[in-house]
Write a structure and sequence with these properties.
Length: 296
């Protein structure tokens, strides 16, 4: 495959991951009508872990990842990040919680030098625009969420950032689906004691609609999204990959307005436009950036 074709495939995978993650917000809000955030995340990862188990156990190389520190830590961070994020979602609207994820590309770009990557001046302009959009949304929730909900949503991004950075140190050529499969299994095992300590065993007597939302989160918004992200982000720079995370907040916000009646305020609308515009500018800047040395 040519370099251009490889990047197009990577962008397609990153787009898929953003769409799947974005769909997780409305599905999560549906499940939260019948259970608490921590139990919902636990059940979500339990579903993902069951589907992932054959990929994690199918070969000796895949099973060896259960002893690989970067993969193990990535799973721990991943599970904790979702617990914090959905505790925030329980206190905010779908649109607000989703749009706050727009701060991630700026955080990823700031950390790009840590993995030996350069960020062009044009990309920094795009990152700045996306950051201003996220700040505008966070600073003017206008009844769409509580200060604690906003703080939890933003705080979860720091843990997601740790997940992304640790994941960069994972083995370069593992068996297909092995790393995301092991990661979600470790995440499920991480969330389990947190949920038991906070609220005890989960209530399994949920409606078919709630279970459908949890299953959709587990398969699409967890396993498939994670696998698509890892495959796509391995082929492009961190800043370019990070921009595609903005598909998640835009889709989540749109579904929040359409399905949950979230009010699209001036701050939410303008912030969303800044996030989208900043994303395109960052991608354009990365296309013109000089090649970065390969990290050791």
């Amino acid at each position: 495959m040519t370099r251009k074709g490889g990047k197009l495939a990577a962008y397609a995978l990153l787009t898929l991951s953003g769409l799947c993650w974005g769909a997780g917000f409305p599905m999560g809000k549906l499940a939260l009508r019948e259970t608490d955030a921590v139990h919902m995340v636990l059940l979500r990862f339990a579903v993902a872990a069951l589907v992932a188990l054959p990929f994690a156990l199918r070969s000796r190389e895949a099973r060896a990842l259960f002893r690989c520190p970067p993969v193990l830590w990535s799973g721990v961070f991943y599970g904790i990040a979702f617990v914090i994020q959905f505790e925030g979602l329980a206190r905010t609207s779908v649109a607000l919680s989703a749009l706050l994820v727009g701060a991630m590309p700026a955080m990823i770009a700031l950390c790009a030098p840590l993995v030996g990557e350069k960020v062009s001046r044009i990309s920094w302009i795009g990152v700045a625009g996306a950051t201003v959009g996220a700040a505008l949304i966070a600073g003017r929730p206008e009844g769409a969420g509580t200060p604690l909900g906003v703080a939890l949503s933003l705080g979860s991004l720091l843990v997601f950032l740790a997940w992304l950075l640790v994941l960069r140190r994972a083995p370069a050529s593992p068996p297909p689906m092995a790393i995301p499969a092991v990661g979600v299994i470790v995440a499920a095992l991480t969330v389990l004691p947190i949920a038991l300590v906070m609220h005890g065993p989960p209530n399994l007597a949920l409606s078919p609609g709630a279970w459908a939302a949890i299953a959709g989160q587990g398969v699409f918004s967890t396993l498939i999204a994670t696998a698509a992200w890892q495959a796509g982000s391995a082929q492009v720079d961190s800043a370019s990959a990070g921009v595609f995370i903005n598909i998640e907040p835009l889709m989540g916000a749109a579904l929040g307005v359409l399905l949950f009646g979230d009010r699209l305020t001036m701050a939410l609308g303008l912030g969303g436009l800044l996030i989208l515009g900043g994303s395109f500018v960052t991608v354009l800047g990365e296309a013109k950036a000089p090649a970065s040395p390969t990290p050791a």
